[in-house]
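pasting for ref
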Amino acid sequence: MNNTHNPRVCVIGAGVAGLSSARYLKHEGINFTVLECTKYVGGTWRYDPRVGYDENGVVLHTSMYKYLRTNLPKPAMELNGFKLPEDAPSFPSWETYYEYLKSFTKHFDLERHIKFLHQVVSIRRLENMWKVKHKHVVTGEVFEEDYEYVIVGTGHHSKPHRPVIPGEDLFNGTIIHSHDYRVPDPYINRKVLVMGGGPSGMEIGLLVADVASRLVHSHHSPAPFEAHFPPHYVKKADVKEFKENGVVFVDGSFEEVDDVIYCTGYEYDYPFIDSSSQLTISTHSVIPLYKYMVNINEPSMFIMGLVVRACLVAAIDAQARYATALIKGNFTLPPKEAMMAEWQAHVDDLRAKGKRMSDIHLLANKEDEYYAELTRESGIARVPPVLFKIRNADMRAKLKNLYTYRKYVYTVIDNETFTKRLEDKNSTTNNTDM
């Protein structure tokens, strides 16, 4: 992949993935343009009280809510070599993190490489080039440009996944998806059903429980949470059907509810990627990808940040360095057949374990080895194993008590070691073997 000329790279989105990619491409002197459909950087980290569409008729992609704090501690949220403010809390608010991303953009002088208010309409492969069509969302003017590489950094937390439940049209209360949740105020003294046991379901459930008269939480998460929930918090099975004034669960029980919040996750949605990419994009998977990001059939396209259950910011940063090193010509990919064989082995392993295809993006306990693989192949600096250890320690703290896990402060000692302490205590616990 050594290039005799400076290739043109199109980066889509100016969130964490787009900004990280821009940083490294700029550092290497590679010719690139970032296309961003809003007038802001920060992607989903920018809070917007509106839902639906913005002033230009563009779908609001952000799912940020007003009282969100990160669910990973500072060391796991920092982009490589760029620290969060020293005085920021251990688990920063969205405001702090959004300001951090703006500071990152300014520090690396990235804004001049970003075309704001340009929405990507289509990306198609033709004559060994990527034809990228994009539209100025205010003027309506359409542009089409050729690029050798495309880095898709739009994320996958924008298109809500809504379950199909019988009787929904009969229900007299309100139903929203967590994508449109902003503040708990509408649920004061209401009977609220929250569906879903993932991170947003647990976080929003607890926030709404603070103001609701009754919080019914329907989920089937196997996570052994030990928190002592308030007496008006009720754990229920999956929903079977809606009635006018409530819901029936699969165990036959009924709960009267006023409002419903679907915390049922998001779908992979890249409507601008043409079939010429030879990717298969479904609701819960994008395939086939090498190293969780390289389009095997057209390896000059990268889909960033699809990994699940990982230190996502660290993973995106590593992916951006890997993609930049490849574009720079610092290493070459294996032959297509070898990449496909590795991917197929992953698929076969999932099937042998009875897993679903949606688990193709899951890292979990393989996270640290993933970083090691990226380094072995590309020569990029290794993501320190300490971050994986911190994520595991944080997960144990969540399982122990969802109300108190943010009280811990994690401090990196070296690439393998960290300390963990309660923020209001001086005692520290060394965690060298986690």
